[in-house]
Every structure is written in structure tokens, then in C-alpha cells.
Specification:
three-stranded mixed β-sheet; 11 helices
């Protein structure tokens, strides 16, 4: 190791002249850190974990066994604590996961003993299970309420491929009208009908079912668009108009949109002869604040 004294060049005498090698040592640039030095700043892979693992998940502290985190191989937690990836630690040495830890306890309880969260936390825990890719937990949650009912509801809504687009249209129209009027609410007309063909009182005595066959030429005579902002239907399912209205209100409310609706009549547009459109028309009131 070269020891550099405090003597400057200006005070040096010819007899004290340094060799070229000494001069190079005196003025050499800082050396590139060695692998050993770099390892002191950032642990080298693979990372070793203790049998009991302290965790800091978004500022919430947990302690669990390493085997619990590795319970299911095809999960993010198993991959994170496999030793193949570097996990940072906080000032206290806890392994840090940059994720909200509110429902992480429910994740651990399932990994430990298969326990499922109470109903009011099912949806939130489901999102966390998706993030951590815990397939067995996702499967279990999907088989209980409210997610099981949601699967049935989505199967019904799948009959209407433009359902989400129509919801967006409701929101956009209501927002535009409220901004134009500088009002805290907006109203719009929505048609919700289950049957393809218009129904009139005159047809009831002649048909035992609301669904009946017409020729292609006759069907065209009944084709029309009700004078509304958005129209939902038709569909083939046991679920009726009120069920779809419930879905619309539920999905808008889930987005924080306050909505009220009431039936204000039927389309009543004259089509041909004694046939009139009897599709129900609803007034939706969207309140913005």
C-alpha cells in the first residue's frame, strides 16, 4: 500500500525526486470498486433468507416462515423469496414489499392454513391475490359470495356485447350536459327492452309467448330506433328489464356516480297499422356533486 505524505512538489529538492512509478501512485485516479466492495453496497445473488422472515409491506409489519411464502410455487411471493431475486430491506432489516399491506394478513392466513377472508373483504383480497398471482386463493374466492354472484351477473351481461360502451355513453352524455348547463345534475333518456320485436296489446290474444316469428320482410317493418340517448337490448335470458336496470345502476355506483332512474312511459312510436313500439323509456338522473 502506498502512503502519500503531505509534502508538496514545490518544497521537494532534486535529491528528493520521486521515481516515475512513485509519481503515478501519487496522482492516480480512484480505483474502480472491486466485486467485494460492490457486494457491500448491494448483496450479490442469490440472496439468502432466514427461516423466519420479517416483512414490511407498505409500512405494515408481518412475520412469517419462509416456507409459508413459498407454499405455492407459481406465485409472485414464491418467486420473490426463491433467492433468485434481490429483495431490499428497511432500516430494521425487514424485507420490503412496495404494496399496500392492508389485506396482506389475509393473504398470509390463506397461505398458512387456507383461511378465507370475511365476505366484506372478499373483493379487496381478490385484487391482492391477483397481484401476487395466488391461483388457489383466486379459485376459492371465486366460489363464494359476492364473487360467485358476480360471475353469474357477468354471464348475463355477456349477452350484450356493447354493455360497457353504453355505460360510457351514459357517463359522457351526462357530463357534457351538466357542463353545458353549469348544473350539478343531468338527465337523459334510456331505453331498456328485452324483446326484439315491439309488443302491443293487440298481439297478446294471438300469441302465447312474447317471442314469435315474423318473416324477414315483416320484421323490417318493425325496425326502428327509439328516440333516446342510449338503448339496451334485446337479449335472451330469464333476467328481465329490472335486472338489467339493477346492473346499470350498480356499475355506475361502483364508479362513484350517483344515479336515480324512473320509468317515464313507453316509446309509443307508430310503426304500421295498429302496431306501436311499447319499449319502456327510463329517465336517468346523474348527480355530479
Amino acid at each position: 500500500m502506498v502512503v502519500v505524505t503531505g509534502q508538496s512538489k514545490a518544497s521537494a529538492t532534486p535529491d528528493d525526486a520521486m521515481s516515475s512509478s512513485d509519481a503515478e501512485d501519487d496522482f492516480q485516479e480512484p480505483a474502480t470498486p472491486t466485486a467485494t466492495q460492490a457486494g457491500q453496497a448491494l448483496p450479490l445473488l442469490p440472496q439468502q433468507f432466514p427461516e423466519v422472515v420479517p416483512l414490511n409491506v407498505g409500512g405494515m409489519f408481518f412475520t412469517t416462515r419462509l416456507s409459508t411464502l413459498r407454499r405455492y410455487e407459481d406465485t409472485m411471493l414464491a418467486a420473490m423469496f426463491s433467492g433468485r431475486h434481490y429483495i431490499p430491506t428497511d432500516a430494521e432489516g425487514r424485507y420490503f414489499i412496495d404494496r399496500d399491506g392492508t389485506y396482506f394478513g389475509d393473504i398470509l392466513n390463506f397461505l398458512r392454513s387456507g383461511d378465507l377472508p370475511p365476505r366484506e373483504r372478499v373483493r379487496s383480497v381478490y385484487k391482492e391475490a391477483q397481484y401476487y398471482s395466488i391461483g388457489p386463493l383466486l379459485d376459492n374466492l371465486e366460489d363464494i359470495q359476492p364473487l360467485k354472484g358476480e360471475k353469474v351477473r357477468q354471464a348475463f351481461l355477456g349477452l350484450m356485447p356493447y354493455y360497457k360502451d353504453h355505460l360510457e355513453r351514459i357517463v359522457e352524455i351526462a357530463k357534457l350536459r351538466a357542463m353545458q348547463r353549469k348544473a350539478r345534475f343531468a338527465k337523459l333518456k334510456v331505453c331498456v327492452f328485452k324483446e326484439e320485436m315491439p309488443i302491443t296489446p293487440y298481439e297478446c290474444p294471438h300469441f302465447n309467448s312474447l317471442r314469435f316469428e315474423r318473416s324477414e320482410s315483416e320484421a323490417k317493418l318493425f325496425e326502428h330506433h327509439c328516440e333516446v340517448d342510449v338503448s339496451f337490448g334485446p337479449w335472451e335470458a330469464v333476467a328481465d328489464v329490472y335486472d338489467l336496470l339493477h346492473c346499470i345502476v350498480t356499475d355506475l355506483s361502483a364508479r362513484g356516480i350517483a344515479v336515480d332512474h324512473q320509468c317515464i312511459g313507453v316509446c309509443d312510436k307508430h310503426l304500421i297499422n295498429h302496431y306501436y313500439c311499447k319499449r319502456p323509456i327510463y329517465e336517468f338522473k346523474i348527480t355530479w356533486w
